[in-house]
Each structure stands twice: as structure tokens, then as C-alpha cells.
Known about the structure:
The complex is a heterodimer. Chain A has helices at 10-14, 19-27, 47-58, 71-85, 100-112, 129-135, 155-161, 184-196, 253-266, 272-284, 286-310, 334-345, 371-386; strands at 34-35, 95-99, 118-123, 139-144, 166-171, 200-204, 229-234, 246-250, 322-323, 347-348, 350-351, 363-366. By secondary structure, chain A is α/β, with parallel strands linked by helices. In chain A, helix 6 (129-135) links the parallel strand 3 (118-123) and strand 4 (139-144). The longest helix of chain A is centred in the last third of the chain and has 25 residues, at 286-310. Chain A is globular. The termini of chain A are far apart. Chain B is of the alpha+beta class. Chain B is 45% helix and 15% strand. In chain B, a hairpin with a 2-residue loop joins strand 5 (207-208) and strand 6 (211-212). The A-B interface holds A 18, 20, 23-24, 27-28, 33, 35, 37-40, 42, 126-128, 176, 298-299, 301-302, 305-306, 348, 350, 354, 371-372, 375 and B 73, 77, 80, 84, 86-90, 219, 221-226.
Amino acid sequence: MTDSGKFVSKKVKSIPPSGIRRFFDLAVGIPGVISLGVGEPDFVTPWHVREACSYSLEQGYTMYTSNAGLLELREELQKSILNEYGLNYDPISQIIITVGASEAVDLAIRAVVEPGDEIIICEPSYVSYKPCVSLAGGIPVPIKTEGQYEFKLQADQLEESITSKTKAIIMSYPNNPTGGIMTKTDLEDIKRVIIKHDLLVISDEIYSKLTYGQVHTSIASLPEMQERTVVINGFSKAQAMTGWRIGYSFGPEAIISAMVKIHQYTILCAPIMAQKAACESLRNGKEEITRMYEEYDKRRRFVFNSFIEMGLDCFEPMGAFYIFPNINKTGLNSEEFAQELLKEEKVAVVPGNAFGLGGEGHIRCSYAASFNKLVEALTRIERFINKRI
Amino acid sequence: MEASKGCITKATLQASRHNVKKTLYGPSVMSLKWVVSFLPIRVVPRAILVPFARVALLYYKEESIMRYKILEILEKNSKATPKQIAGMLGLNESMVAEEIISMENERIILQYGAIINWEKASNKDMVIALIDVKVTPQRDVGFDQLAAKIYKYPEVREIFLMSGSYDFSVQVVGKNLKEIADFVGKKLAIIDGVQSTTTHFVLKKYKVAHVILEDDEKDRRQVITP
């Protein structure tokens, strides 16, 4: 018998499995578990979008689209980007439709990273940036953002991490898992450093429509930034379309066309039915998006207040649908906390250390769960915490 | 559930903070100025009165938005406590509690109930009928008085005045067809002013008050995802 493992590349072998996956294996199959560990909306995709998709199937839209995606979708996106950010992108050459924002992350990284390039990543963050940089031959350089600064990237921190090899920075605000956002003023600060060192920004703004109390600002919308920013977004979160796998990216023509090149040889194109559904969501989805948004906002306040009342240190999340309380007071680390909570009270949360630097000492709770479930989960968490502090 | 129906105007429904500001600096301020300019005694200069009125109006609108948001939560979940509601809306708990009590007193909130799938709950016989009623309103007996004559019967669950080819839509609950037939024949049709009735029996309920009765609300998501 040959050990087939020997065929696997060293590069892939060196990438650690996702911490979330490990915890998933623990949590799955426990009866009666309430999960606050889900990184996707609890809403099903609005009916009008599902209906538009089945109509497109009835009409026979079952073929490939152009590599960059349906032009009608890119044109709708151009309008919505112009409307939201005041930025104009050419639908022909500056917008690409991808299989989820995740693919766009990979494409953007592969389009720019040369072996040995250092790519700065703000952590805690979504789990794919680091492995994608490593797979592309780059060197991920994580920066630890902190609760005391509302998990915002600080200009001096960024300055310190930059070397002659630094090429780009990946940031994701509104942030998963912290719920942190960067306001226009915050972005102005780091913009100076970025321009000084001539860096590219890969800005994953998948939660852009879910900011509370203020409107999202994209770093691309600051003067001089449009030409050095690749923005990544998608339909999964605010539109509740995770399973459709529809994302998009817009940016300077040179980078987008490089991304299209990789995309055409690996993916060819995103599925047409999902693209049709995305068109419908852009055209007629506003009301449903607002309805879900308002629901998240109520839950956000409720969950935040509940954690504060429990006596945990918690930063008020201003975006996405996660809250990231600090659990140091319990004397447990994040992994112990999540495991014991699961065992004792059957509530699944994700240990903060799964999200990289600065995640330890925190747990990520998603409030994309029905209100009744949240009430029950928080009662259980409170009981768990009371035994420990 | 039906309790708060009709108590909220469409205007409040759409109102957001943004809209409040827009209206404030739009027509309402204009009309305020107009009113102020016609005040017989000009003791208080307009420069003071107008901003004051503006603030008062803002307060009033804010309050009605707050009320609307509280009602919206209660309409979906009458078990939500003032503390929970305050948490969701970022308000003070006692303020919410007071507001709920005053809305109960003003009969904005009429009753707290549950949406029940009776078919699933018991084998108790129940028949629901929707009856279209045409009436001829007469002098001194308008629609409202006629409606009162109908809704006072305990069998009547809901009654609406409708536009279109008939006047009242009456929902009646009974144990069986005969009971409903008796109600229509012996009580409803003989009311003075009732011209005709058309009775439709409900065969199956699918959705009530935004809730799908047979909805399989299983969470199909994976337990943990990044």
C-alpha cells in the first residue's frame, strides 16, 4: 500500500486546519444544542429572490455566462456602488462576479502576491485570509487589533508592521468576529500610512450593509484610494443568500482583469441562476433587506445589554451580526469556555482564538438566531458564568 | 394579535428618524410659522416660539416612533418583557413599561394573545365562516350602528367594513355548520337593514397574522460556520 499522503504538497500540509472546523466536530450531533456559532443569517433568502431564480430556470437560463459574470448584474452593481459609495466603476472592466466573496478574496490575493511578499492582515478576522496568502506563496503578517480600541486598526500599529517587502493589507470592516467598524476618520488615519508606503488594500466589505447607527464608509471612497483598493463584497449576509455563493469584487482595471484571468481558468463563471437571483435582489430587495437589518439591530442591542448585565467586558458591536465578549473574568481561556459551555449548557459559541491574534480571551456569538433562541441561550450562558464569577 | 390593528397609521409605519427631520424642516415648519404669524397676541417673538414648537414637535414624533417600535415587537411577541424590549430598542426599561401601560390605558393595546394552530391543538370541533353582508344604511342607523348590532353577538370574531360589492366582512366561529347556519338565519339576516348575506366556510388555514401554520421552521444551517 502506498501512502497517498506523500503526494500532498508540503505547502498544503503546512496549513493548519480551521479551528472552527475542529469545534464544529465537537458541537455537531449534540441534541438540544442552541447554536450561536453560525456565521450566516437565520433568515431564508427572501421569497421574491427565490421565485426569480426558479423563473429563470423555467425560462431556460442554464448556460455559462461571460467569465466576469452577467453584464446585467454588473450594471446593476455599478448603479448600487455609485449609490452607496459615490464611486464609479466600469461594469465591463472593473467589476467581477465570483463564487462567493471567499473566491474573490482568493482571486485578489493570487492576482497580486509574489513569493516572499508580505501581506498584512488585521486580526481577529475571518479565517481564510492567512491560508490564502500562504497558498499564494506570500507571507501573512498579522496585526492584533484590540478591544480597547474597538478592534479598529491603528495607524501606528500599521506603520510598525510595514517592511520593504510589504505589498498589501487585507482588512475586513464591519468585522467578523468582533463587530468592529472603521469610520471615515479612522480610515483617514490609516490612509496616510498606506499612501506613504505605496500599499494596495484588499478590503473585504461583505458586511457593509450591516452597520448600525451610521452608514458604512469604504476605504476606496477616500480620495486617492480608489486606484489602490480592491473591494470585495457579496450577497450572502445582508441579502441572506449564503448558499447561492454569489460575491463580487470591484477595483482598478489592471487588478480586476488579473482576477478575471485566474477566475476563467479555475471557475469559468459563477452559476447563472444565482446571478439571476442576485439581479432580482439588487432591483427589488431593499424592503426585505431593511426588514432583516432592523431585526438584527434589535437583537444586537438586546444581546449586548445582556452580556453587560452578566458582568462581562464587552465592546458594543457596530456592524455585522456578531458580538465578541471578553471572558477573561471567568478564568477560562476561550477554548475551555466554549467547550465547557457546550457540555454544561448546550450552547455553541466559537472560541475567539479561531480568529487569529487578539481572539484569545473572547468568544464569538452570532445573533443571527431567532429572538426566543437568543433569550434561552443567554439565560444558559448567564447561569454558566454565574458559577464562575 | 388583532388587537393593535388599525391603531397605527401608515405615516408612523414609514417614519424613521430621517423622515422626522425631513418633515420638521419641510411643510410642518412652514405651517407652524403660518399659525404663529396669525396669533393675535405677539408677546412671544416668533424667533423664540418657532424653535420651541420645533422641539416640541420633534419630541412628539420621537415618542410616536418609539411607541410604534414597541408595538411592532409586542405584535410579534406579546411575551416580550419591558426589559427585553428596552434592551432591543436601546431605551430605558421603566420608560418602556410606562409607555406600555399608557398605551393599554389609551386602548391602543387592547389584549395580549397567542396565535394558535387549533387544528393541531385538539380535536375540538370548530367551523369558521366568512360572511359577506350587504346592508342598507338608514337614517339614524349608519354603518357603525349596524356593525354594532352584528359585532355584539359573541359568535362574531371579526368584522370589517369593506369597499367593493358588499359592505361588511364578518368572521364567525361555531362548533359546526348548523350552528353557523343558525347564526346567519336567526340572528344576522333578520337584522333591520341587512339586505343579503353570502357565507363562505373556511376549509383550511395556511397563514394567520404573518405566521405560516404548517411552516417547517427547522434550522437547516450547520451548527458552526466561520
